[in-house]
Amino acid sequence: MSEPLRQDGIGDGDELDRLWTPHRMAYIRGENKPADASSGLCPFCRIPGLDDAAGLVVRRGELAFAVLNLYPYAPGHLMVCPYRHIADYTETTDAEAAEVADLTRQAMRTLRAVSGAGGFNVGMNQGEVAGAGIAAHLHQHVVPRWPGDQNFMPVIGRTKTLPELLTDTRALLAGAWAV
């Protein structure tokens, strides 16, 4: 929902539209953010137990899986996670590290094929101080990029646009996943 800031003395009359996203408050407050696997709150541990559509799982491997990000930076933003609940990349086995790398390459190929992505931001934020939103479970971000994708909207309009529903993006990627 978009509405202008009120001009009745409440707030600054900056004439910017506001897109209210109250669903993000759970994320901002850190609700359900696990410290370890014992709490049962880790989303990356829960997601594999859901069916692919409900969990937004794009691809499952033997040791890791690819899942869409609920709070994407760009359309098609996904994460590759080992099934095992570990926090640090150095804790991966050789086989886990290889499958995370392989699923990342497959994700990039698939995103290029279905969306014409011109580039990618790929990486892991290791630890809370390094920006990890869920530091307790290792996950690698794969963010597709296009020329002009971060145009004036976030800078001037202070708004991000996502042109496709997550369920539609998941179906598109899962159906076209390159093995």
Which features characterize this protein?
alpha+beta, HIT family, subunit A, two-stranded antiparallel sheet, 7 strands
Polypeptide structure, described:
The mean pLDDT is about 80. The protein is built from six helices and seven strands, in the order ββαααβββαββαα. The longest helix is centred in the middle third of the chain and has 22 residues. It has a single domain, classed as HIT family, subunit A (2-Layer Sandwich). The chain is an alpha+beta fold and about 180 residues long. The strands form two sheets. Strands 3-4-5-7-6 form a five-stranded antiparallel beta sheet. It has a two-stranded antiparallel sheet with strand order 1-2.
CA radius of gyration:
18 Å
Average pLDDT figure: 81
Series of secondary-structure elements, N-terminal to C-terminal? EEHHHEEEHEEHH
CATH architecture title:
2-Layer Sandwich
Determine the fraction of residues in helical runs and give it as a percent range.
25-40%
Stated plainly, the CATH topology is called HIT family, subunit A
* Content-based structural category: alpha+beta
CATH superfamily: HIT-like
| Separation of the first and last Cα atoms | 39 Å
Query: Main sheet: which strands, in order across?
Result: 3-4-5-7-6
What percent strand?
15-25%
Biggest sheet record: 5 strands, antiparallel
Tally of discrete structural domains: 1
Q: How many β-strands, per DSSP?
A: 7
- Overall, the morphology is globular
Number of helices: 6
The CATH class: Alpha Beta
Spans of 5+ residues with little confidence (pLDDT < 50)?
none
